[in-house]
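The passage that follows is intended for readers who have already worked through the single-chain material. We present the inputs for a multi-component assembly, then the predicted structure in tokenized form, and finally a short commentary. You are encouraged to pause after the input and sketch how you expect the pieces to fit together before reading on.
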Amino acid sequence: MSPHIVLRVGAKVLIPVILLFALYIQFHGEYSPGGGFQAGIIFAAALVLYTLIFGLDAVQRAVPPVAVHLLSAVGALLYIGVGVWAMFAGGNFLEYKVLAADPHLGETMGIILIELGVGITVGAVVISLFYSFAGRTREQEN
Amino acid sequence: MEWLGLFNYWVVVVLMMTGFYVVIAQGNLIKKIVGLNIFQTSVFIFYISLSKLEGGTAPIYVEGITAYSNPLPHVLILTAIVVGVALTAVGLALAVRIHEAYGSIEEDEIQAQDEEDARNT
Amino acid sequence: MIDHLPALQVVLPLLAAPLLLFMVRWPTLAWAFTTAVAWATFFVAALLLEQVWGGAVISYAHGGWEPPFGIEYRVDTVNAFVLLIIAGISAIVMPFARDSVEQEVDSNRIAWFYSAFLLANAGLLGIAITGDAFNIFVFFEISAIASYALIAMGRDRRALLSSFNYLIMGTIGTTFLLIGIGFMYMMTGTLNLADLAERLPEVRDTTTIRAAFAFIAVGVSLKLALFPLHLWLPNAYTYAPSMVTVFLSATATKVAIYVLLRFFYSVFGAEFSFGELPMDHVLMPLALLGILLPSIVAIFQDDVKRMLAYSSVAQVGYIILGISFATTLGLTASMLHLFNHAITKAALFMALGAIVYQIGGTQLTRMAGIARDMPWTMAAFVIGGLSLIGVPLTAGFITKWYLLLAALDSGYWPIAVFLLATSLLAVIYIWRVVEVAYFRERPADAPVVSEAPLALLLPTWTLALASILFGIYTALPVGAASRAATILMGGY
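Having made your guess, compare it with the prediction:
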């Protein structure tokens, strides 16, 4: 791993920026182009880049596969949970405006939570896809 | 050049037929998935070009602009792209497991192995 | 909560699917949870059917966005009936699944398996309940992707390639559907089915709408395995785990047929589909060939599961035949067969699942003399077989009877004769199994076999008895089917 010093330094500079950019896309999606799908993919891309340079073991110590599987469930649950919450609050499924006393606040809150759920699920699913394919080749080589 | 007027449809048709041909003609499972992706992409381009309004801008609210492209097909295709990614992932995962089970991803070689199994039992 | 039933119908299984990922270590808990959800879904479907029985239409606006702008769930007797079939089959298959899945799927994959099952269930229910064209595409893909995963979990390595082929064919089908929906959106600017039905007459004399119709017809026909687009089906059903075969054979193609009906009758209108376009002359020959050829192919199969898969293709032919008459009576027969065939085929595949559980396969050679050791399983198989043939006092007879009436009503008396003749083909392939299982000696070197456990027998017998019950007491299926047919003929 040591010979790729340019790649390692480059990656270390890039990865925090990519993660920050993902968060920007995530939380700015309400006003401007962006949102959960794109943010999740960008977030996962940072981890994929890390894996390519430092290896699968290193990244799986930080983000174990079990955690990724559970996170993909958590994101989906957050999404559907907001929908069901709206039902209990007296609206239809996914009708955000009943979530708070002020309908505008409710809508803002609803869409931010939903997009967060989407972001978590998309990021987690893409990482777990990458894990399962990357893990397969190693098993065969051994 | 009237018949080239709506050239986006020509792009869509050419891409669609390319993808469809690859799916049918190739025996290699990975190439089949590539073909399927091209086939789907052509439909995505069809939807996106459908929403374009001449002189219209991206559908983001800005003061002083009145002509916007239709954002609905964009949203639909965002969903369809995610569906396409999931399909590609499942297809590739199947290809990996087929390779582990048969040692090949060529359709005719796999079928030959299956036929041999059928003869032996 | 009663107002939210349409949403709950899909949300319940969709919410439960990710929750199962927290139960990966406790397969039995995962099974129990899935069973509870499946029965709750069934309960919701029954309540929905009860509400719309008198002809009412329930409309549910997601997110409070009024149709035609938002996504609308729209329940009338037609799709409430289809919902009941899907939810009912998935509820009854769950008690059966426990032992069968435990044996056929790795224990650390069981929770994932049930998660995929619930997603497939939610997808199929979603296709049936939604009133939005693009939503139909999305739910088609949700159910399809989950089904590919379920089929690939079969033990035989051939399951992988059959799943892959299903993926290719299924994706081409749904992409065609997507193109058709795009054409319609282009001409009308709407995706809501009821709104489409209102706006299409203005523009329907254009090439674009005819092309949309063609794309949708071909795409959905691929999904419902209309002969000759059925090539993915036999392998997928043969190599899938038993429980998956039961579930898919009873629900997946049925839902696709429902979508075809919805587009042909409700969206485009019977007058356009069968008057201006010659769909009756296209569907009828395909249906007749689709009954005849797969029935003949079924006779020559050595694997009973595969034989029944070909028989499923033939049964799709019967349903399409009823549609091609384009009369209320023909539609009634088709809707009835959706229900009766779902019960009958599920009972048959469950009996085979019990046999797989005991002897590990369904090749005819391995089943010699098995009826002596597994009398209850084989008796259920025989009842299902009789219903498949269409013997009086079984559910299958009722549909064949209505099909005959519809054929004679439209003046196609040769088809009536043809129906009787093809029933004989069913007699032949069912008899082959009966002959082997009842009248051959068990080979001396064959392993000792005992009767299947009660957990497998009870659901099998429930469905076998149901296929007799609905052959005698026909008020529910015939009532629902004739109401549904009247609604479909009347447009949206």
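Commentary: Chain A has one domain: 5-141. Chain A has a mean pLDDT of 86. How closely did your sketch match?
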